[in-house]
Amino acid sequence: MTMTLNEQQARLEALAREQGASLFGVADLQPLLEREPELLSRVPGAHTRAVVMGVRLNACVLESIHEAPTPLYAHHYMQVNYLLDRIALALATTIEGWGHAALPIPASQVVSNRPLQGHVSHKTLGGAAGLGFIGRSSLLIHPQYGAQVRYASVLTTLPLKAGQPLKQDCGSCHACQESCPAGAIRESSAAYDLTACHQTLQTFSRLPFVGHQICGVCVKVCKGRS
Ligand code: SF4
Ligand code: SF4
Hints:
Bound molecules: iron/sulfur cluster
Oligomer: single chain
Helix content: 25-40%
Number of domains: 1
Radius of gyration: 17 Å
Distance between the termini: 42 Å
Mean pLDDT: 95
């Protein structure tokens, strides 16, 4: 039996949530590409939508972080990335079964070191899908879960119903700015010092049993605005 587009969208969301996603949204790529023509320059295909999935980080693991990442956080970070990649694969396979193109974008695969970047920015896609706003920390901030979510995406030609960007900001909160060990976070995301952040992440990657360019300090303190 042929599914309607609404039924396909509901099926994809249910599939994502059954597999552990806390957040699900869809971004229309057309307006994004008009603003950022290079957005998809690293990936093949002529996609029109991005499905964005988010998995919340574990609160107890985040509690282990004080001024630097911990082995517990490093392991958890990787496991959440793997979970997101599996969810993205399941959705992409389902969409392909419906006869549309679908490209799973890894949760965290670095393909450029200067600056540190993946295939496509999940936070850009998630912001367009209405899952959050870009905060002072330059992270995607969900109104309820703050920065404590990791994301993966599936680019597709399936014309799903897209969300709208949120009209919110950090307000009077400066928690991440006050706690950043690199001094990288400023008054606005436009002034965020990516280089300072990355230098600190490289230092952290040499910590015993961490081994990745991660931090978690600004994630731990960002608990949402509602
Ligand atoms: S990841 Fe760490 S160093 Fe980078 S901005 Fe956040 S708190 Fe600062
Ligand atoms: S901790 Fe506060 S200032 Fe920093 S990104 Fe989150 S909401 Fe914005």
